[in-house]
Amino acid sequence: MRIADPNRDNGAFSSLTMNDIMSWLKALGNINEVDPRITASRNAKEQREIAIEHLRLALYDMQRLDYLFPDSEHSKVPNFKISRLESWPKWKEPHPEIRAGGLGTQKVDGFKDAKRMKSYVMVPFNLLAFTQPEMVKGLPMTPPSGPAGNWIGVKKIMGHVSLDITGEGGRDTPFVIYFYKDVLLIMEILDVKRISWPEPGPKFFKQLQGCQELKFGADPGAPLVPMMETPKVPLVLVRYSYMEGRPECGSQFVLHLESRLREILPNASDSELRVELEKRMASGEEMPEEHLRMFARLLSYNADFVDREWVDDQQSHWNIPKEVKKETRISFFVPCLRPRFRAVEEIETGKKPIPYTQCGKCNKDAKKTMCGSCRAVCYCSPDCATAHWPEHKADCKISKKIISEPSSLPPDTLYIPVRAFVPWVTDFGFASEQEAVKMGGPVVGENPRNEYGAKRFICRALMPNAGTSQWDPHQAKMVFYGRGAGTAVFFDRRRSVMVRLGPQEPAQALQQGIVIPFHDAGYQKFTQVVQKRGIEGQLLYVWVRRVGDCIEIDLKDIPDQRNMRWD
Fold it and tell me: Quick one: how far is CA 205 from the chain centroid?
């Protein structure tokens, strides 16, 4: 047998079937559609190449590498300057209060001891890697079978590595071992670097303050509480060897690990060192084969990003023999495992999402300037904005027409103001509050940018309990809405539009000092369409167009819900 390269041998991308690849894509990013280039091509090899490239993009995105290394691009060019990153200050110090064997038990309060928790690599890993629903269901401990469970298993391995280097072992754990029968993955821990999440701008900072006011009861404008501060993301650097079967002449990398043990046990004899090495090799943690193979692919892919100068320096620093270099690679892993919806769209459509930037007057490119009121139209210059105003004026604040002239609105349409009036902290499992808020739409009181121009796009409308009574917190009683069924939530694939609609929503908006008109006739028609055409009478995909400070929902041309695969 031999040392395996996970890019070429049994653990490789090339070993995956098309079904495997598509299953992994769905598991990684909740991706339900297929790139049209795959279905259009009759060449099986070309189809696989496109699918594998999508899988690589998904792995890249799930590591959030564009956030952590903003100057890099999705490519296989080694451009991550690891040497520029500061090391995690106390990762080598043992923390006996964190128990090994699982996710660990912390004898600290997550809010009061937030500063203390920052010294634990394990804490940021678990906060950033696992979603809240996964933690509640206990999935990190018992991943289910299938691609989704395999991906949770990959995250579990990363979490366990962070436990080993942060918990009771500390400096006494220079390497970790995972195995399944004759599949073996050994990782030598080189360093733990930390990267600051991008600092929030003024508007984003205001969102965070609003969120902490809602979550922790903090005073408006108060400094961010510790749990809301910009997190330090751990990046664990490893030298790893992935084996399928034992090498005939033994592993040179394993002999190298003896030298690492000698650093910890300087007074041990050669025989005692071998006994200690065998004991540690035998006490490795067993993991399902698919978990190990997918993690090896992730390590192999990430290894391609590391700048060669740093790798060469590491190899010379440890006086790594040529035989060991042949058996190992230097890589890293990051716990920021969250899908971004624009990356999902790119994987599904094969096209990079480009926000609408065409001048509403002259059609020239206009990347930054937009109508300051509705943010629905771009302009290349103030002159074009002024010239276009007579034409744009009627649409700019169409929400006013909902109040003053509702009968003048076109029939079979629903108009919903897009001005945000509640802090959107959507439950997509983002444990990092900063990212959760960032995913949640515009600042309260502002309209989101129009990313589609005058083109139609699909929105998902979810109206639970359609046609039944619903608890109204403002009236403190159950209310049956004869005209509808309470609140519906609309959002597009990119989550650039996220709006609420319901009879009680204007009252909630008014509490924030924001006037949100309610299109009563359109709402009644919409609830009828949902009950008649919607999936389970609750879920409906609709065509939407941005008109001024509203979105216009077409209630006549309803897409075929049976063929809708976007989620």
Answer: 20
Q: pTM for the whole thing?
A: 0.79
Instruction: Give the closest residue to 371 by CA, choosing from 522, 562, 361.
Output: 361
3-state SS, residue 487: coil
Alpha carbons 441 and 224: distance in angstroms, whole number: 20
Host H or E run for residue 415: strand 413-417
Beta bridge mates, 80? 306
Dist CA 424 CA 422 (whole Å)? 6
Residue 350 neighbours by CB distance under 10 Å: 16
On whether the CB atoms of residues 36 and 349 are closer than 8 A, the answer is yes
Residue 557 DSSP SS3: coil
**Three-class DSSP category at 188:** strand
Tell me the sheet residues that pair with 457.
544
Taking the C-alpha atoms of residue 16 and residue 22, their distance in angstroms, rounded to an integer, is: 10
User: In terms of Cα–Cα distance, which of 497, 435, 433, 513 is closest to 460?
Assistant: 497
Which of 5, 24, 26, 28 lies closest to 16 in space, CA to CA? Answer: 24
> Measured in Å, how far apart are the chain's first and last C-alpha atoms?
44
Neighbours of 78 (CB within 10 A): 16
What's the farthest any 2 CA atoms get from each other in the chain?
A: 91
The two three-digit tokens of residue 108, written as one number: 């600290």
Residue-wise pLDDT for 474-497, tens only, equals 666 545 454 445 789 998 988 888
Which tokens is 267 given? 């007074």
pLDDT at 552: 97
Question: How many helices (H) and strands (E) in the chain?
Answer: 20, 15
Q: What is the pLDDT of residues 380-389, one digit of tens each?
A: 999 999 999 9
Backbone angles phi, psi at 48, to 5 degrees: -65, -40
Judge whether 51 and 18 are in contact, CB under 8 Å: yes
Cβ-proximal residues to 474 (8 Å cutoff; 6+ apart), any chain: 504, 507, 508
Cα–Cα distance measured from residue 567 to residue 562, given in angstroms and rounded to the nearest whole number: 13
Which single residue is written with the structure tokens 């902290």? 425
87-104 tens-digit pLDDT: 988 888 777 666 544 444
Environment class of 245 (CB within 10 Å of its CB; exposed 0-12, middle 13-18, buried 19+): middle
Regions of the chain where pLDDT drops below 70: 1-12, 30, 70-79, 96-112, 114, 167-172, 227, 246-250, 317-318, 368, 423-443, 465-485, 565-567
Q: What pLDDT, in 10s, does the model give residues 361-386?
A: 999 988 768 898 999 999 999 999 99
CA distance 367 to 379: 8
Contact 329, 240 (CB under 8 A): yes
Q: Which residues contact 524 (CB under 8 A, 6 or more apart)?
A: 483, 484
What is the distance between the alpha carbons of residues 295 and 253, in angstroms, rounded to a whole number? 19
Q: Where are the chain's structural domains?
A: 2-344, 354-396, 397-563
- Tell me the torsion sign for CA atoms 3, 6, 9, 11: positive
Q: How far is CA 244 from CA 1, 13, 14, 183, 470, in A?
A: 7, 15, 16, 4, 58
Question: Is the separation of the CB atoms in 362 and 380 below 8 Å?
Answer: yes
